C-alpha cells in the first residue's frame, strides 16, 4: 500500500476557464475527469509515473450548461456520472469515440488577465494549448428540477443517490434510471452519502438565509426503503451546514464534515457510528473557513478531507490521527478552495479540484 | 465639500427672523420663517396623500443576480435569466412571480452612488445625503410622514419593521420619528398598557381635566404639543388591532409566502390601506461577501412571492396608483466574484426598482455595460432617485428647512427627478 | 444713548441736586435694576402690557429648577409659601446658589452646550463622567468663565480634554464649534464660500482653523479604560484651495496663516528650516511644541479685550433664564441680527467682565430681576416672548426629569438611592433627550408618551412603595381633601384649586380600594404639562 505520509506533487493540470469544482478518477485506470463552474468536463490520462511536463487533457465532454457539482465513476470504469446546476445528472460512456476535435488554451484566463494589465508591466505567460476530442453523447437523468448539488454511487456502481436544492433526494438505478425511492428534506439537500448496503443514506439539509429566523441547517440518517428519517443528528451539529458525508468501505464509520463559510478552523470532520448516529470522534485541526469534500481511501483505513484553505488532509480513521497534509494554504485574507478530492483505485494518486483553475495531482510511493 | 450652501440661495437675514424656541441652555436655534414655508407645501401635499412602501434589502442585493442579468459573461454567475411579462426585460430565474408583474416595475439599472459601506450606505440611501455631514438629515420615511401624514390619525405616520434606516427623523423633529414593529408585526417596547381598559380611561380623563385647568391661564405652544402627543399615543394604543394580521394571514400567506418578510409586506399593505403614509419592511440579509449565490437564491425565494404578492394585492384593491413601492438596498454588489464565492460591495453601477404611485411601469431606465462594471447611460444619483420619489408623492424635492441657522433642502442641489419614470 | 438712560441720569442728577448730595454715577444702579429698566423701556416702546409678577409658588418652582435642576420638596414649598419675609425671594436665591446642586445643574447645562446629544467621535465622548466631574468642580469652586474656557481650549487638566476629543482630526469642526459656542459666531457657511450676507470670508474660516490643525489627540489604553491627551505638534498648516464650487480633484491648497477672527494674523516665529516633527512612538507622549498656537488661541479667546467673548456668554446666560437671547439665535452674532436690547447686552457683558466672569454673580442678578420673576400666565402664546413680557417656557431636560421625578415622589425615602439612576439611562434619554426639531420647536413624540404611559421605569415612581409619596398619601389618616392638597404641594409645588381638590377626591374615592387610584392620580400630575415644563 502506498505510504500516505509522504505526498509528492506530481502535476498541476492547468484549466483556468473557471473554478474547477469536481474531480473523479475513472475505474481502476489513471484517467481522471474534472468538471468546472461553467459546466465543462475534461479528461486526462495520467502517465504511469509522476514527473515531467503536465499531461494534456485528451477529451472534453460537452453537455452541461452550468456548474458540474460532482463527478463519480463506476468501479468498472465504464460510466462517468456528472451532477450539475443545470438540473440534470449526465451519464457518459467512457469509451465513447469523440465526434470531433477542438483546440483549447488551458491558461486562457491568465493570458487575458495579463493582457488587461500590460500597462502595469504584466507579462503574459506562454500559452498552454491542447487538442481535445469532443464527446457530445450522454444520457440525462432529468427527474431533478433544481440544482443537483451532489451524488453518490454504491460500490457496485449500480445505484445512485442524488440530491438537489429543492430538497429532493432520489435513489435510482443507474442503468435504467428508474427511481427506486425519493423523499424531500426540509430546505435544500447538500451533503449526501449512501451506505454500501444501500439501506441507509446520510443527508445534510439547509436553507441558507442570513440573520433570518427561517435559516435552517440539519443532518439526518434516512432509511432508504421507507424514505423516513431514522436519526436526527442536529443535536451534535446544531445549525451547522454539513458540506460532505461519506461511508467507510466496511460501512462501520460515517464521516461528516462542516462546510462554510464559518469562522476559524471550523471545517471539522466528525466520525459517527451509522448504526446509532453516535459520535466516535472529531478530527482536528479543522479546515479554515469550512470543509468541502470527503473521500475514503481504497485501503479502507484512511480518509481525505478538503476545505476552503487549499489544504487536503489525510487521516487515519481508527486513531483519528493526522497522517499528512497535502499542499499548502495559499495565504492571503481568505484561503482558496479545494472543491473536491478523488483517490485512484490503487490508492497511489490523489486528485484535487482547485478553485484557482487547476487539478492538482499528488502521488504516494509504495 | 458642503453641498447645501449656495450663495444665491440664501434669503436675506430679515426673512429668517420671526419667532423663536430655544432649549434649556440656549442651545438650538429656531426659525419660524422656514417652518412657514414648509407648512404651505405640506398642506398642498397632504391633499394628494400618496403613500409609500419601502422594501429595504439590507446588506445590499446583487443587481447582476436579480434585475440586471449578464448571461454568458464571466461576471454572470450560475443564475439564468427568464423573460418577464415585459419584452426586453429579463430577470433572474428565481423571481418568476416578480417577472409576471414586471409591467408594474420601473427598473433603474444605472444607480451610481457614493457611500460604499453599510452604516454610511444605509444613511445615504435613506436620506440622500452623505453621513459625514453634521446635519441630522431625516429619513425618507420622516419626510413622507411629515408631508403626507395626518398627525390627527390614530396610527403612526412612519412605521417600520425589520432592518431599516439609521437616521431617524433628524431635523424634522420627534413628531415624525419612526414607529418600530417587530418582524412579526409585534408592537415595539412600551406598547402594552399596564392598566386595565377602564382604569386607563379614568386616568386619561383625569389627565384631560388637569390639562384643561392648566390651559386656562397657560397658553404657550409647547403645552398644546405635549397634550396632542399624549392623545396621539392613546389613540395608537386603542388602534392596536390594526397591527393584528393573525386572521388574515392563513389565506394571505399563500400569496405572500410563509416568511417574516412576507408577513411584513402584508402588514405594509394593511397599514397603507388604513392611511399610514409610509411603511418600511426590511429583509435580512443580502451582504453575501461569501457564498453569494446560495444566499441570494434563498433570499429570492422569500422576496419573489412577497414583492409580487404585495404589488398584486395593492393593484387588486385599487391602491397601487397611489402607493409608491420602492425596492432597494444600501449598495449593489461587484460583478467580479471573489474567492469566497461571494460578491463584495459595489456602488458604481447597480439597481433599484420603483413601482406604483404613478410611476410608469414596464420599463428599464439606464443601462450598464456588458459585464456590469459601469453605467453606460443615464446615471442616477441618490439625489435624483429621491427627487423622483418625492415628486411622485407630491412633495417638493427642494423644500427647505432650517437646522439651526443653516438651510437644508430635502435633496442636494442639482438633484433632478427622472422624467421618464414619472410619465 | 437710549432715552431711559438719559432720563435716569437726569433724574439722579436732579435728585442729587435736590438732596444736595453729589450726583451718583449711572453705573451705581445694580445690574438687576438696570435689567428691569431696560426691559421696561422695551415694553414702553412697543406699548406692551407685560404679565404680572409671578405668584410665590410659580417663582419657587421655576427658580429651583433653573438653579438646582429639581423641584422643592413639600416641606420646602410649604415653608416658602408661608414665609412672610419681604426679601424671601432674594434669600431663596442666595440659598440655592450656595447649594451644591447648583454646580451640578450648571455642569449639566454647559455639558449640553459643549457636547450636545450627539457629539463627534461618539464612541469616545458618549460616556464622559470624567469630564462632568471636572466641569462640576469648576462650578463648585466658582472658577471664572474665562478660566474655565481657557482650560477647555488648553485641554490640559484631567477631564477637560474630552471636549476636544470630539473634534479629533477635524480642525474644521473644532473651528465651527468653538466659534459658535465661545464667540457666538456662525462660521459654518464660510467653510465653503464667503459668507452670503455676513462679513466672514473663507480666509477668516481657515485663519481660525489654523489654530486647531496642529492638535493631536493621543490615546492610551489601560485595561478597559481609554484616556486621552490633547497634544500639539510643532508644525502643520491648513491648506486653502478656494471656494467649494471651484474644487477639482488633485487641486492642493496654499498654507494659510492663522488669524484671530476679526483681528490680526498670529505673530509666530518661523519654523526653523531643519526642524523635524518627532516621530510618534507608541506609549510616548508628544512633547510640548516650542510655540503653542493652542495657548495663543486660548489667551485670545478669553482675553477681556476679546470683542466677542463676554457678549457671547452674557447673552447665553441671559437666554438660559430668560428664554431668548438678546441676540437671537443665541450663537448668531452678526451685523444683520441686531440685539433686541443693545444697551442691556453691553452692560451685561461689561459688568460680567468687571466681575471676573463670575457666572454665579451674573445669574444672581438675572434671577433677582423683576423681568425673570414675571408670571408665566396670560394671553401671550410665544414660547419665548420676544420682549420678555412673560416668563419663558422650556421643557425639562432628561436630566431634570429624572431628578424631579425622584424629588416629587420621595423616591429616596424608599431606600433606593444608587447614584446610577440619578442620571437618565438609555430609555429616559431616548424618550426625553431630544424633544426639539431642527428649528428648536418642542415636539411631543409617540415614544415619549408610550414611555410615560406604559413603562415600568415611570410606574416605579407612582406605585406605592413604603416611604414614597403614594405610600404617604395612602397611609395618612386625614381627610382626602387634605391629602390631595398635600399631593399638589409636593408634585406641582402649589396649592390645589378647590375644583382640583374636588375632582381628585372624587377620582380617588371612585374605587373602594384607593391604592390604584392614588397611584394613577400621582401619575397624572407627573405626566402633566405643568410638570413637564418650566414656566
Quick tags:
heterotrimer, A: 366 residues, mainly beta, Methylamine Dehydrogenase, Chain H, 6-stranded mixed beta sheet, 4-stranded antiparallel beta sheet, 1 helix, globular, C: 535 residues, mainly alpha, two-stranded antiparallel ribbon, two-stranded antiparallel sheet, disordered N terminus
Polypeptide structure, described:
The complex is a heterotrimer of chains A (366), B (423) and C (535). Chain A has 366 residues and is mainly β. Chain A has one helix and 30 strands. Chain A has one helix at 108-116; strands at residues 7-14, 20-25, 31-36, 41-45, 57-61, 68-73, 79-84, 89-93, 100-105, 129-135, 139-141, 148-153, 159-164, 168-173, 179-184, 188-194, 200-207, 216-223, 228-232, 242-247, 254-258, 267-273, 278-287, 291-296, 302-307, 312-316, 322-326, 338-343, 349-354, 358-364. In chain A, strand 6 (68-73) and strand 7 (79-84) form a beta hairpin. Chain A is globular and about 55 Å long. The model of chain A has no long low-confidence stretch (mean pLDDT 94). Chain B has 423 residues and is an alpha/beta fold. Helix content of chain B is 34%, strand content 16%. Chain B is built from twelve helices and 16 strands. In chain B, the strands form five sheets. An eight-stranded mixed β-sheet of chain B has the order 6-5-7-1-8-11-4-12, sandwiched between helices. In chain B, strands 2-3 form a two-stranded antiparallel ribbon. Chain B has a two-stranded antiparallel sheet with strand order 9-10. Chain C has 535 residues and is mostly helical. In chain C, a hairpin with a 2-residue loop joins strand 1 (215-222) and strand 2. Residues 1-26 of chain C have low confidence and may be disordered. At the B-C interface, helix 2, helix 6, helix 7 and strand 15 of B face helix 6, helix 14, strand 5, helix 19 and helix 23 of C.
End-to-end gap of chain A: 6 Å
Distance between the termini of chain C: 33 Å
The overall pLDDT average of chain A reads 94
Oligomer status: heterotrimer
CATH topology of chain A, what is it called? Methylamine Dehydrogenase, Chain H
Q: If helices are DSSP runs of H or I spanning 4 or more residues, what is the number of helices of chain C?
A: 25
Amino acid at each position: 500500500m502506498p505510504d500516505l505520509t509522504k505526498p509528492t506533487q506530481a502535476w498541476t493540470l492547468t484549466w483556468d476557464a473557471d473554478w474547477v469544482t469536481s474531480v473523479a478518477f475513472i475505474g481502476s485506470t489513471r484517467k481522471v475527469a474534472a468538471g468546472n463552474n461553467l459546466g465543462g468536463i475534461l479528461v486526462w490520462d495520467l502517465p504511469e509515473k509522476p514527473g515531467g511536463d503536465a499531461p494534456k487533457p485528451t477529451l472534453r465532454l460537452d453537455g452541461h450548461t452550468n456548474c458540474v457539482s460532482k463527478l463519480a465513476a463506476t468501479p468498472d470504469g465504464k460510466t462517468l456520472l456528472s451532477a450539475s446546476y443545470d438540473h440534470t445528472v449526465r451519464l457518459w460512456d467512457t469509451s465513447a469515440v469523440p465526434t470531433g476535435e477542438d483546440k483549447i488554451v488551458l491558461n486562457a484566463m491568465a493570458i487575458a488577465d495579463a493582457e488587461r494589465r500590460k500597462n502595469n508591466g504584466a507579462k503574459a505567460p506562454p500559452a498552454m494549448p491542447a487538442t481535445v476530442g469532443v464527446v457530445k453523447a450522454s444520457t440525462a437523468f432529468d427527474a431533478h428540477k433544481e440544482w443537483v448539488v451532489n451524488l453518490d454511487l454504491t460500490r457496485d456502481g449500480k445505484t445512485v443517490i442524488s440530491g438537489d436544492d429543492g430538497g429532493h433526494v432520489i435513489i435510482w438505478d443507474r442503468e435504467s434510471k428508474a427511481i427506486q425511492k425519493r423523499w424531500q428534506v426540509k430546505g435544500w439537500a447538500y451533503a449526501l452519502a449512501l451506505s454500501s448496503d444501500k439501506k441507509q443514506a446520510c443527508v445534510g439539509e439547509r436553507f441558507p438565509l442570513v440573520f433570518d429566523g427561517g435559516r435552517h441547517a440539519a443532518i439526518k440518517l434516512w432509511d432508504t426503503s421507507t424514505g423516513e428519517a431514522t436519526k436526527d443528528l442536529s443535536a451534535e451539529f446544531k445549525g451547522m451546514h454539513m458540506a460532505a458525508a461519506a461511508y467507510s468501505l466496511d460501512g462501520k464509520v460515517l464521516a461528516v464534515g462542516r462546510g462554510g463559510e464559518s469562522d476559524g478552523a471550523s471545517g471539522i470532520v466528525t466520525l459517527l457510528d451509522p448504526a446509532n448516529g453516535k459520535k466516535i470522534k472529531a478530527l482536528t485541526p479543522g479546515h479554515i473557513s469550512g470543509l468541502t469534500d470527503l473521500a475514503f481511501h481504497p485501503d479502507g483505513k484512511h480518509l481525505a478531507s478538503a476545505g476552503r484553505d487549499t489544504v487536503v488532509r489525510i487521516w487515519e480513521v481508527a486513531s483519528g490521527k493526522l497522517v499528512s497534509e497535502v499542499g499548502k494554504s495559499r495565504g492571503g485574507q481568505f484561503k482558496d478552495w479545494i472543491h473536491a478530492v478523488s483517490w485512484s483505485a490503487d490508492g497511489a494518486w490523489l486528485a484535487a479540484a482547485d478553485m484557482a483553475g487547476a487539478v492538482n495531482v499528488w502521488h504516494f510511493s509504495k | 465639500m458642503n453641498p447645501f450652501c449656495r450663495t444665491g440661495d440664501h434669503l436675506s437675514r430679515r426673512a429668517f427672523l420671526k419667532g423663536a424656541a430655544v432649549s434649556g441652555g440656549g442651545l438650538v436655534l429656531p426659525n419660524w420663517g422656514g417652518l412657514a414655508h414648509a407648512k404651505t407645501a405640506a398642506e398642498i401635499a397632504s391633499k394628494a396623500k400618496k403613500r409609500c412602501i419601502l422594501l429595504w434589502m439590507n446588506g445590499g442585493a446583487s443587481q447582476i443576480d436579480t434585475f440586471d442579468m449578464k448571461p454568458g459573461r464571466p461576471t454572470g454567475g450560475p443564475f439564468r435569466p427568464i423573460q418577464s411579462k415585459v419584452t426586453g426585460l429579463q430577470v433572474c430565474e428565481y423571481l418568476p412571480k416578480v417577472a409576471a408583474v414586471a409591467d408594474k416595475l420601473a427598473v433603474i439599472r444605472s444607480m451610481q452612488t457614493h457611500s460604499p459601506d453599510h452604516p454610511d450606505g444605509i444613511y445615504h440611501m435613506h436620506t440622500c445625503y452623505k453621513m459625514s455631514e453634521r446635519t441630522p438629515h431625516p429619513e425618507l420615511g420622516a419626510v413622507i410622514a411629515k408631508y403626507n401624514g395626518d398627525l390627527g390619525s390614530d396610527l403612526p405616520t412612519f412605521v417600520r419593521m425589520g432592518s431599516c434606516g439609521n437616521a431617524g427623523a433628524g431635523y424634522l423633529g420627534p413628531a415624525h420619528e419612526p414607529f418600530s414593529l417587530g418582524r412579526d408585526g409585534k408592537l415595539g417596547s412600551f406598547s402594552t398598557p399596564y392598566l386595565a381598559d377602564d382604569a386607563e380611561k379614568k386616568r386619561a380623563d383625569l389627565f384631560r381635566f388637569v390639562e384643561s385647568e392648566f390651559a386656562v391661564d397657560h397658553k404657550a405652544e409647547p403645552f398644546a404639543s405635549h397634550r396632542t402627543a399624549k392623545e396621539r399615543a392613546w389613540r395608537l394604543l386603542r388602534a392596536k388591532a390594526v397591527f393584528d394580521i393573525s386572521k388574515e394571514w392563513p389565506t394571505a400567506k399563500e400569496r405572500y409566502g410563509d416568511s417574516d418578510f412576507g408577513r411584513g409586506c402584508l402588514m405594509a399593505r394593511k397599514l397603507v390601506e388604513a392611511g399610514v403614509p409610509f411603511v418600511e419592511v426590511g429583509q435580512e440579509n443580502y451582504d453575501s461577501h461569501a457564498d453569494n449565490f446560495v444566499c441570494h437564491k434563498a433570499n429570492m425565494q422569500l422576496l419573489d412571492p412577497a414583492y409580487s404578492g404585495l404589488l398584486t394585492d395593492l393593484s387588486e384593491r385599487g391602491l397601487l396608483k397611489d402607493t409608491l413601492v420602492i425596492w432597494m438596498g444600501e449598495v449593489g454588489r461587484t460583478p467580479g466574484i471573489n474567492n469566497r464565492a461571494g460578491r463584495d460591495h459595489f456602488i458604481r453601477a447597480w439597481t433599484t426598482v420603483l413601482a406604483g404611485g404613478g410611476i410608469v411601469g414596464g420599463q428599464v431606465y439606464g443601462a450598464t455595460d456588458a459585464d456590469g462594471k459601469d453605467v453606460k447611460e443615464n446615471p442616477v444619483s441618490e439625489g435624483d432617485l429621491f427627487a423622483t420619489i418625492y415628486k411622485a408623492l407630491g412633495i417638493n424635492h427642494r423644500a427647505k428647512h432650517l437646522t439651526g441657522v443653516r438651510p437644508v433642502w430635502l435633496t442636494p442641489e442639482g438633484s433632478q427627478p427622472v422624467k421618464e419614470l414619472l410619465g | 444713548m437710549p432715552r431711559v438712560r438719559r432720563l435716569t441720569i437726569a433724574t439722579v442728577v436732579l435728585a442729587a441736586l435736590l438732596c444736595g448730595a453729589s450726583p451718583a454715577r449711572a453705573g451705581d444702579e445694580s445690574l438687576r435694576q438696570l435689567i428691569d429698566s431696560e426691559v421696561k423701556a422695551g415694553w414702553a416702546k412697543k406699548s406692551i402690557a407685560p404679565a404680572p409678577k409671578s405668584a410665590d409658588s410659580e417663582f419657587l418652582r421655576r427658580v429651583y429648577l433653573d438653579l438646582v435642576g429639581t423641584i422643592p420638596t413639600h416641606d420646602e414649598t410649604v415653608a416658602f409659601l408661608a414665609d412672610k419675609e419681604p426679601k424671601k425671594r432674594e434669600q431663596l436665591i442666595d440659598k440655592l446658589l450656595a447649594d451644591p446642586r447648583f454646580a451640578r445643574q450648571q455642569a449639566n447645562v454647559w455639558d449640553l452646550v459643549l457636547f450636545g446629544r450627539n457629539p463627534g467621535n461618539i464612541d469616545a465622548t458618549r460616556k464622559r463622567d470624567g469630564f462632568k466631574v471636572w466641569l462640576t468642580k469648576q462650578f463648585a469652586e466658582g472658577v471664572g468663565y474665562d478660566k474655565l474656557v481657557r482650560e477647555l481650549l488648553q485641554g490640559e487638566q484631567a477631564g477637560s480634554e474630552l471636549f476636544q476629543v470630539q473634534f479629533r482630526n477635524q480642525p474644521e469642526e473644532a473651528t465651527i464649534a468653538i466659534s459658535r459656542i465661545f464667540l457666538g459666531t456662525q462660521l459654518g457657511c464660510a467653510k465653503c464660500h464667503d459668507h452670503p450676507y455676513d462679513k466672514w470670508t473663507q480666509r477668516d474660516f481657515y485663519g481660525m482653523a489654523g489654530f486647531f490643525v496642529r492638535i493631536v489627540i493621543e490615546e492610551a489604553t489601560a485595561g478597559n479604560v481609554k484616556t486621552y491627551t490633547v497634544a500639539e505638534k510643532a508644525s502643520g498648516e491648513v491648506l486653502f484651495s478656494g471656494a467649494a464650487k471651484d474644487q477639482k480633484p488633485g487641486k492642493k491648497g496654499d498654507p494659510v496663516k492663522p488669524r484671530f477672527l476679526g483681528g490680526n494674523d498670529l505673530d509666530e516665529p518661523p519654523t526653523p528650516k531643519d526642524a523635524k516633527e518627532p516621530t510618534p512612538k507608541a506609549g510616548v507622549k508628544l512633547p510640548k511644541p516650542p510655540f503653542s498656537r493652542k495657548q495663543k488661541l486660548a489667551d485670545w479667546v478669553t482675553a477681556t479685550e476679546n470683542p466677542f467673548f463676554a457678549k457671547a456668554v452674557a447673552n447665553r446666560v441671559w437666554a438660559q433664564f430668560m428664554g431668548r437671547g438678546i441676540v437671537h439665535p443665541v450663537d448668531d452674532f452678526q451685523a444683520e441680527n441686531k440685539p433686541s436690547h443693545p444697551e442691556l447686552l453691553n452692560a451685561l457683558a461689561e459688568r460680567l467682565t468687571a466681575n471676573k466672569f463670575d457666572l454665579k454673580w451674573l445669574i444672581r442678578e438675572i434671577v433677582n430681576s423683576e423681568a425673570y420673576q414675571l408670571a408665566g400666565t396670560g394671553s401671550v402664546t410665544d414660547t419665548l416672548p420676544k420682549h420678555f413680557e412673560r416668563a419663558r417656557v422650556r421643557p425639562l431636560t432628561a436630566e431634570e426629569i429624572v431628578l424631579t421625578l425622584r424629588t416629587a415622589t420621595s423616591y429616596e425615602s424608599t431606600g433606593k438611592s444608587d447614584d446610577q439612576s440619578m442620571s437618565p439611562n438609555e430609555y429616559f434619554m431616548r424618550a426625553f433627550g431630544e424633544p426639539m426639531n431642527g428649528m428648536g420647536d418642542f415636539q411631543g413624540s409617540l415614544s415619549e408618551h408610550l414611555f410615560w404611559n406604559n413603562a415600568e421605569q415611570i410606574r416605579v415612581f407612582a406605585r406605592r412603595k413604603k416611604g414614597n409619596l403614594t405610600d404617604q398619601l395612602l397611609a395618612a389618616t386625614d381627610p382626602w381633601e387634605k391629602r390631595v392638597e398635600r399631593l399638589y404641594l409636593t408634585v406641582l409645588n402649589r396649592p390645589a384649586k378647590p375644583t382640583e381638590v374636588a375632582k381628585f377626591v372624587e377620582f380617588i374615592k371612585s374605587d373602594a380600594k384607593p391604592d390604584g387610584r392614588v397611584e394613577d392620580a400621582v401619575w397624572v400630575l407627573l405626566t402633566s404639562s405643568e410638570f413637564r415644563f418650566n414656566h
